[in-house]
């Protein structure tokens, strides 16, 4: 049963400005440690797309869950790209969204100017 659906779109230049202005401090508020490490390896343009995509995905998850962004905690959620797609990992086993039986589906897409994400949460 689907419990929630959320989406978000963000302008990549807006994220680029935040990255340039606040540097690693901004990344530390938006990305998990391993996401930040991966982002640091990317060329600047691709880094901004990556950060914007993760930001949009986590915002979409907050909307789908109904808990809000503050309670979701951007750095407590890690999105890993695998051959099977995007995998959601909660860094804290006590996280509000780690209830058993919840399955997350998250998709991210980019254009040159925008990043878009959609999140669906379902319960088995």
Automatic annotation (TrEMBL):
**Where is this chain's protein located in or outside the cell?**
Cytoplasm
Q: Which cofactor does it need?
A: Mg(2+)
State the encoding gene. Answer: acpS
Can you name this protein? Answer: Holo-[acyl-carrier-protein] synthase
What does the function comment of this entry state? Transfers the 4'-phosphopantetheine moiety from coenzyme A to a Ser of acyl-carrier-protein.
What family classification does the UniProt entry report for this protein?
Belongs to the P-Pant transferase superfamily. AcpS family.
- Which EC class is the enzyme in? transferase
Query: Which Pfam families does this UniProt record tie to the protein?
Result: ACPS
Gene3D superfamilies given for it?
4'-phosphopantetheinyl transferase domain
- Cellular component terms, GO, for this chain's entry? cytoplasm
Which reaction is recorded as catalysed by this protein?
apo-[ACP] + CoA = holo-[ACP] + adenosine 3',5'-bisphosphate + H(+)
Give any GO molecular function from the UniProt entry.
magnesium ion binding
Start and end residues of each 4'-phosphopantetheinyl transferase domain: 4-90
Task: State which Enzyme Commission number(s) the record gives.
Answer: 2.7.8.7
Q: Which SUPFAM superfamilies match?
A: 4'-phosphopantetheinyl transferase (SSF56214)
**GO biological process terms on file:** fatty acid biosynthetic process
Q: Which residues bind Mg(2+)?
A: 8, 59
Q: Which UniProt keywords apply?
A: Cytoplasm, Fatty acid biosynthesis, Fatty acid metabolism, Lipid biosynthesis, Lipid metabolism, Magnesium, Metal-binding, Transferase
